[in-house]
Amino acid sequence: MLSAVCGAGWGSGWHYRDNQRRIQAFGAEIEQQKSNKYY
Hints:
Blueprint: H1 2-8, H2 12-38
């Protein structure tokens, strides 16, 4: 419920930053899995 309010209203800037952090963490995890496969 809170995230819906944030996405629709004033909090979209904060929400965007939070998503960027999640995307970065997800990307780092994938990179780690890739390197684990190759080595």
